[in-house]
Design brief:
The complex is a heterodimer of chains A (105) and B (495).
Chain A lengths: L2 H18 L2 E2 H12 L3 H13 L3 E6 L7 E6 L1 H25 L5
Antiparallel strand pairs in A: 1-3, 2-3
Chain B lengths: L1 H11 L5 H22 L3 H7 L3 H12 L17 H42 L8 H40 L6 H7 L3 H7 L1 H27 L1 H7 L5 E9 L6 E6 L4 E7 L3 E9 L5 E5 L4 E5 L9 H9 L3 E7 L4 E7 L5 E15 L4 E8 L3 E5 L4 E14 L5 E14 L5 E6 L6 E7 L5 E6 L1 E7 L5 E4 L7 E7 L5 E3 L3 E3 L1
Helix pairs in contact in B: 1-2, 1-4, 5-6, 6-7, 6-9
Classes of the chains: A alpha+beta (105), B alpha/beta (495).
Chain lengths: 105, 495
């Protein structure tokens, strides 16, 4: 897959996980891994990048047994970014669908 | 298990800044205790689940746009490792110090050889005879392949130097530098890779060159019997000119020759006799003119070079030009410009001496001259025995220069791909003023050479200098070689 496209899609999927609920790194990875089979080490730098970009915030939450965990949560900018990515994904999806169904001139 | 994993990961993540690194590492810390505490896994199980630290670092660093540095290239801990530093120094001393200059010398020696062949090729007259076109084409083809070989050597040199610099930087812990990678871009192969059209042209030329060699060579071999007549490798005709002379003082000899060994003899008659045994188409012309006291010998300059047929022929049937002079005849000047053959001159008193050939030796024995002597060849040796002159210049490119038993004020001996031997020159009581010797790929041997100033210069050869008379001190001696031994046992003040 084109690197730029792959990056955009991964961003969208990470944001989508967090739209549903706040989560810590390993959980985010598990969700993505279950559906995409992506490697763990590519997820963590993405999380960091999006925190830097202001799409996410982090907070520490006691975990009961061990040390506190770092949770990720979407900021308002994160929600906006998610919507924007969603829109471009849908228009991309439509275009592809039109093509694969043979509905083009 | 975990500690080792985290330590390795931390090491591979070194290119990141402290904050970035801590963040990634904390993800994995979290990963371990989540697994242990909530999923009841052992450290080993978790490590097995995770990717290798190396793969993780590769992925992470890619996301951050940083280069991954493999472990084998890092030194342990901080700072310079003494072991690798010593390795570098030893390698430089014992290998690099001779290898780089040697490779360079081989490359340039080869290029010089090619250039001299090109000169030879250009001398093939374009209209001289049927078949000379084939000769030129075969020559061009072979030269092209020679040029490719030179470029290939150049690439090896550049690659090696780039590798060397990279290795040094790593050993000194200076990290990878961009300009080192740029050195590799100086390779011809790199140049061609970036220019597909030029590269394509090169490949087409290669094909054409191969075709030229095959077709031209085939033509030469098939037409050997016809061609050899046109290209001088034909059957030789013997001719002889003899002229009685009365005045033996101050004769001039001029020769512009193409092929045949030119040998001067002395005989007891009062005549000058010239016996030639050369190819008919050489158009040998000889004149002995007592009025002007001049001997003139000319040939239509033809052939040699890349005629395969002639190569075979020249080994079996050598043309000759023999000049017989009266014993007491003195030569005012001898001026020979030759292409394919030796020039041999013995037992005479000569004024000015200029002898040059391309493919052959210049051999002189017992010649006394009161003017400068210039002896030169490209693909042969210069050998001088018992010569005396104020000034001797002896030059070769691909041969040896060997001067013994002489008396000179100044002597200059140089070659590129050969040895230089200078022996028994002057006396300690009457030394000459200056000797210069220079070669690239040969040794220089001086024995019993008494000169005030001596220069010895080689790149890949050894230097030796020994005099019997140890009381003679060379006023200024300078000697340099890059890859040879030096064995200088003469007393001297070093320049």
């Amino acid at each position: 897959m084109d690197a730029q496209l792959k990056k955009g899609v991964l961003d969208l999927m990470v944001l989508s996980v967090l739209k549903k609920m706040d989560a810590y790194g390993y959980i985010i990875y598990q969700r993505l891994n279950a559906s995409l089979g992506i490697s763990e080490s590519t997820i963590y730098p993405i999380l960091r990048r999006m925190v830097k970009a202001g799409y996410m915030d982090t907070y520490l939450k006691p975990s009961g047994l061990g040390p506190a965990r770092k949770y990720f949560t979407l900021t308002p900018e994160g929600h906006d970014h998610h919507r924007r990515l969603m829109e471009s994904w849908q228009s991309f999806e439509n275009t592809v669908n039109t093509f694969v169904k043979g509905e083009f001139e | 298990m975990k500690d080792q994993f985290m330590k390795q990961l931390a090491m591979y993540l070194e290119p990141l800044n402290e904050e970035e690194r801590a963040e990634i590492l904390s993800f994995y810390e979290e990963r371990f205790y989540t697994g242990k505490l909530y999923e009841g896994k052992s450290e080993a199980e978790i490590v097995a689940e995770l990717e290798d630290p190396e793969d993780i670092a590769r992925n992470v660093l890619r996301e951050y746009g940083k280069p991954f540095v493999p472990q084998s290239h890092r030194s342990e801990g901080e700072g310079v490792r003494v072991g690798s530093l010593i390795g570098v120094i030893l390698f430089d001393m014992f290998f690099v110090s001779w290898f780089v200059p040697a490779l360079f010398a081989i490359m340039s020696g080869f290029a010089a050889g090619l250039a001299s062949l090109l000169v030879t090729l250009v001398m093939v007259p374009f209209s001289a005879a049927e078949g000379s076109l084939a000769t030129i084409l075969v020559g061009l083809g072979l030269l092209f392949f020679g040029a490719l070989l030179v470029l290939w050597l150049y690439d090896i040199l550049v690659t090696f130097i780039a590798w060397l610099l990279k290795w040094h930087l790593e050993a000194l812990n200076l990290g990878a530098k961009d300009w080192v990678r740029r050195i590799r871009n100086l390779r011809v192969s790199n140049f061609l890779k970036k220019r597909p059209r030029t590269n394509k042209l090169k490949n087409q030329l290669k094909f054409v060159a191969l075709l030229l060699v095959i077709v031209g060579g085939f033509y030469q071999i098939v037409n050997f019997n016809t061609l050899r007549f046109n290209l001088g490798a034909q059957e030789l005709i013997t001719d002889s000119v003899e002229e009685p002379i009365t005045d033996v003082e101050g004769w001039d000899v001029d020769g512009e020759l193409g092929t045949g060994d030119l040998v001067f003899y002395t005989h007891e008659q009062d005549t000058i006799r010239i016996e030639t045994r050369v190819a008919e188409n050489a158009d040998m012309e000889v004149s002995i003119d007592e009025a002007t006291k001049t001997i003139t010998m000319t040939q239509d300059i033809n052939y040699f070079s890349f005629n395969i047929g002639q190569w075979i022929h020249s080994f079996t049937n050598e043309p000759t030009i023999d000049v017989y002079l009266p014993e007491d005849l003195s030569l005012e000047s001898v001026n020979i410009d030759h292409m394919n053959g030796d020039i041999v001159l013995n037992d005479h008193t000569v004024g000015e001496l200029d002898l040059f050939t391309i493919n052959g030796d210049v051999r002189l024995d017992s010649i006394a001259s009161d003017a400068p002597m210039h002896l030169g060849t490209t693909n042969g040796n210069v050998i001088g025995q018992s010569l005396s002159s104020s000034e001797l210049d002896a030059n070769s490119t691909n041969g040896r220069v060997d001067i013994r038993n002489g008396t000179f004020d100044t002597l200059d001996a140089s070659t590129t791909n050969g040895k230089i031997i200078v022996q028994d020159i002057n006396d300690a009581s009457t030394p000459g003023s200056k000797l210069e010797t220079k070669t690239t790929n040969g040794n220089i041997e001086l024995v019993n050479v008494y000169m005030d100033h001596v220069t010895m210069k080689s790149t890949n050869g050894s230097l030796s200098y020994d005099n019997d008379d140890d009381t003679f001190i060379i006023d200024r001696l300078s000697y340099t070689t890059t890859n040879g031994r030096t064995d200088i046992s003469v007393p001297h003040t070093r320049d």
